[in-house]
Design a protein that fits this description.
heterodimer; A: alpha/beta; six-stranded mixed sheet; four-stranded antiparallel sheet; 36% helix; globular; B: alpha+beta; 2 domains; two-stranded antiparallel ribbon; 14 helices
């Protein structure tokens, strides 16, 4: 497995300002992630795990500190640059899948490709709409949804919808996949199936993946666990 | 984007149907009201031209300013009239001459015991030439045309109804003659006219000009010459008159006469019609406002319900502009759908009214509503009005949608996703 440094977090802080008080969600976090890692961020509710994942995913702004993705500081970037990072380098798997119900399974996956500019599409060998469709079909096959490509996402089960969401996250071959409580809305059998799938894809495609979860099942399927408590790093093992 | 927007309309079927229906009702009402207004406007103009003002009138100088008093001290004398006639013949303008005066009608019917008096407008008409300009004598609904040199009268139908007048009934008319003396005439009801102009029906009394000339010592003088350029097509007549009148006005002025167009003669009525149109436009504005509120509400609901979609699209790297555009397109499609349905409904509702009209005769008989329409009011559907209503609705939808999606994609994604 590749051991190149992918992500470095230095003295990261996040404070939410409310009317009555300032809430320090993250306090002086320092972490590094190697390429190909399968890591979970764990901790009790309110420990700051989702906040950390959001900051890494450019979904929120840090108060101060640095997040270096492939050497580029995400905290110093403007809105447009952060948008570009999300578009090109990051894939998201949400707790409640966040699929567009009026689109078919493959069309949902294609949403991640349609946003790419011509240069980015060419890098993925996507010349036309047919190429995009083919790529989406291949990705859905990889996540075990062969034959369900033309189904509306609303007609799929929870586990199947999460698979579509995984395919959508993986289809553009991002540097990093961020999964926020990916099994929270699934029963244990489906949860296990999803975790095994991500584990297999991590091994076969070498994609770095960071979970945020307090589910023991998730922790069992990762090679590294980072524990947060009250916004501070407790341990990384 | 188009595919998602279109499918989302199908996804929220009930809401789409309700909003489309609201827009459609707005557009349909706009089309119907506009068609009624256009119809009433055109019918009014035609009925003014055919029964009241003609295309233009030539008066003696000073008469126009006091025309509402029907003065008899301003007359076009016989010689001046001949000069005018040769001018009009040269220009190939159809004309007739009239003597108009206010008059009081006294009636007593031995049979029905109905008696009393009523104010009316007495028109002395040229029995030969009146039909060259006016349609009044083509509208005799009871009785026959008055005889030359006789004291016979034709009454407007509403006037006859109010007097309980019947054919052959005798009555007395008091009218001013040359110099202002009062002449009392014993006359016989020869006919009743039912025109499409309520003013004529309510106030018009028609007699032979030759008879009145004798009785009122007019010596061939009249109060007006009435002109027409086309008696079968009022729109064409208006067009031709507006082309010919500037020169004719100059020519009349040169012989000491005052030529006035139908617009000048009916200025007060036309301004009343205009103010009615403004009020109707205000009404239409409120109809569209209601539709716009409906669309804003629908789109705001859609934005609220689809927060997670918005958050996901932003997470994938879609721009704020794309996301706003998506909702904006949905609102616009909704507007287009509603407009299309509204235009179809509007046409369906208006066509029967265009063909058969709505009978307002009982309403307008006792009431002056400004329009010169005596009974059946016809709608007039125009493609321009349909298109304008549809475009207005689409624009209102676009505006409402843009209001609703203003905040759709604002804020950090984490915040948007947390709000779910």
């Amino acid at each position: 497995m590749n051991s190149t440094r992918l992500l470095t977090i230095e003295h990261l802080n996040k404070t939410y300002h409310t009317a009555s008080e300032d809430v320090h969600a993250l306090k002086d976090i320092n972490l590094t992630f190697e390429q190909g890692e399968l890591t979970s961020i764990s901790g009790p509710s309110g420990s700051g795990k989702t906040t950390l994942l959001n900051l890494i995913g450019c979904l929120d702004m840090a108060t101060d500190g640095k997040i270096l993705l492939e050497g580029k500081d995400l905290v110093a970037m403007n809105q447009k640059e952060r948008n570009m990072v999300r578009r090109q380098h990051l894939g998201f798997i949400f707790q409640n899948y966040n699929l567009i119900p009026v689109l078919k399974a493959w069309e949902n996956v294609a949403m991640a490709l349609q946003v790419l500019d011509t240069k980015q599409r060419q890098a993925l060998a996507l010349e036309n709409k047919e190429d995009i469709k083919e790529k989406c079909f291949q990705m859905l096959e990889k996540v075990g949804l062969k034959g369900m490509e033309e189904r509306l996402s609303n007609d799929l089960s929870g586990g199947q919808q999460q698979r579509v969401s995984i395919a959508r996250a993986l289809v553009k071959s991002p540097s990093l996949i961020l999964a926020d409580e990916p099994t929270a809305n699934l029963d244990s059998a489906n949860g296990l199936m999803i975790l095994t799938l991500i584990e297999d894809l991590n091994k076969s495609m070498g994609i770095t993946c960071i979970y945020s979860s307090h589910d023991d099942l998730v922790l069992e399927h990762t090679r590294r666990v980072i524990i947060l408590k009250d916004g501070q790093l407790q341990c990384s093992k | 984007m188009f595919k998602i927007a279109l499918r989302n309309l199908g996804r929220y079927k009930k809401r789409t149907i309700v909003t489309t229906f609201a827009i459609a009702v707005g557009v349909m009402t706009a089309i119907f009201f506009n068609a009624m207004l256009v119809g009433a406007d055109n019918d009014s103009k035609r009925n003014l031209l055919w029964y009241e003002t003609s295309c233009a009138k030539v008066f003696p100088k000073g008469y126009f300013e006091e025309r509402n008093l029907y003065p008899v001290n301003f007359l076009i004398e016989s010689e001046q009239g001949k000069e005018l006639e040769s001018l009009l013949q040269k220009d190939k303008v159809s004309y007739t001459k009239r003597f108009s005066s206010s008059a009081e009608l006294f009636f007593l019917d031995e049979k029905t015991k109905v008696s009393g008096s009523l104010m009316a407008i007495l028109y002395g008409i040229d029995l030969q030439q009146d039909k060259n300009v006016f349609h009044t004598m083509n509208s005799i609904s009871e009785g026959t045309m008055i005889g030359k040199g006789t004291g016979q009268v034709i009454l407007g139908c509403n006037l006859a109804y109010d007097m309980k007048a019947r054919l052959g009934q005798e009555m007395t008319i008091q009218v001013k003659g040359r110099g202002g003396f009062i002449q009392t005439l014993d006359v016989v009801v020869q006919g009743i006219v039912t025109t499409e102009n309520p003013i004529i029906n309510t106030t018009g009394v028609f007699m032979d000009l030759e008879y009145l000339d004798d009785m009122l010592e007019l010596d061939g003088a009249v109060t007006e010459y009435d002109l027409s350029w086309n008696t079968s097509n009022s729109s064409q007549a208006i067009k031709e008159a507006s082309n010919a009148l500037p020169l004719l006005k100059e020519q009349c002025s040169a012989i000491g006469l005052d030529c006035r167009s139908w617009e000048e003669l009916a200025a007060d009525i036309l301004s009343l019609v205009q103010s009615k149109s403004s009020f109707s436009n205000l009404l239409l504005f409120f109809i569209f406002l209601i539709a716009a509120v409906g669309i804003t509400n629908t789109m705001a609901m859609a934005v609220m319900e689809r927060k997670k979609e918005i958050g996901m699209l932003k997470a994938l790297g879609y721009t704020q502009r794309y996301i706003k555009g998506l909702f904006f397109l949905e609102g616009t499609l909704l507007g287009m759908l509603g407009s299309l349905a509204g235009v179809l409904l509007g046409i369906l509702v208006t066509i029967p009214v265009q063909r058969y009209g709505i009978d307002f005769s009982s309403m307008v008989k006792d009431m002056n509503i400004g329009y010169r329409i005596a009974g059946i009011m016809h709608a007039e559907l125009t493609g321009k009005e349909c298109l304008a209503a549809a475009l207005l609705a689409i624009l209102a939808s676009m505006f409402s949608a843009s209001l609703a999606v203003r905040k759709a994609a604002k804020g950090e994604i984490a915040q948007i996703l947390r709000r779910m």
